[in-house]
């Protein structure tokens, strides 16, 4: 019998975060202060109401409407000091939440409105991450993932930018934005370039669109991981009597151990899952897919790694062993060199869970 860990135990457990958007994780008070500095108009004028506005507006059941809220975060992240501050606070908040390794993504092309170059954007974010890691006393390791927007046409440029920063803090590439109507194959040249460069990438797929999007991401584009991938459930049939049948794509994803970057709270907000309790993560975990737990956008979902994991504990009766399994899954799937992944698993994650289990 697995005793349910309390929220405080979940907070103290080492956690790994692979899917978190820099422009989706600002502190409401920071959005307010930065907006005042640049004269950006916001829909609320105190931190509490603004936090509520983000959560309620994102709670629309539609990915497209969810994404509209980012106008107010991206709008205040257009200078190097603002990007550095947001990046530093991101690391501080994650470290305080018990995250020991994080890959944080954002789209550099969205931060050049006031004249920064793409390179200056990445440098400003890296400066903030370095400051945050130092402030956290080195208890967390952080890498950048550079995202290209799927409706735009800058993916090749962003892929080249990511590769040029590969030894300076950037570990991978991603595409994000509205999914329906913007298949990943539009960016095939970028993905082929990244493969030739032996670089890593993940693709948001199977969130607002179904199996064809996942199939393209894996079989045409060669994605190492899937952002969300929730709709893989459409290729799984549970028969009366409990027998489970996997279609060819679902079998492939499980056989190849392709990591699913699941973010339950976000998935409920965008309508990709009806509720946490009915989230496909329950069945996919039972079937031993390579499931990982993520926050996606901490501001829009008013969430954290602790909240996500604790919500799963309550919905599915998970114990510390399950949380450790999610965490090791995530660390195994990180875009960090193998020896560094192993060092965090053996040196931080396993001892951290062993200590909690011994209490
Ligand atoms: O869950 C998501 N699906 C698709 N796109 C997303 C999601 N969360 C954030 N984004 C977009 C909005 C951001 O401005 C962009 C880069 O972080 O990525
Ligand atoms: Zn995302």
UniProtKB/TrEMBL annotation:
The active site is at residue 207. GO terms for molecular function: 2'-deoxyadenosine deaminase activity; adenosine deaminase activity; zinc ion binding. Coiled coil: none annotated. Gene3D superfamilies: Metal-dependent hydrolases. Substrate binds at residues 21, 23, 177. It is an enzyme of class 3 (hydrolase). Keywords: Hydrolase, Metal-binding, Nucleotide metabolism, Zinc. The keyword Lipid metabolism does not apply. GO terms for biological process: adenosine catabolic process; hypoxanthine salvage; inosine biosynthetic process; nucleotide metabolic process; purine ribonucleoside monophosphate biosynthetic process. Its EC number is 3.5.4.4. The record marks 228 as: Important for catalytic activity. SUPFAM superfamilies: Metallo-dependent hydrolases. InterPro entries: A_deaminase, A_deaminase_dom, Ado/ade_deaminase, Metal_Hydrolase. It catalyses: adenosine + H2O + H(+) = inosine + NH4(+); 2'-deoxyadenosine + H2O + H(+) = 2'-deoxyinosine + NH4(+). Catalyzes the hydrolytic deamination of adenosine and 2-deoxyadenosine. Belongs to the metallo-dependent hydrolases superfamily. Adenosine and AMP deaminases family. Adenosine deaminase subfamily. This is Adenosine deaminase.
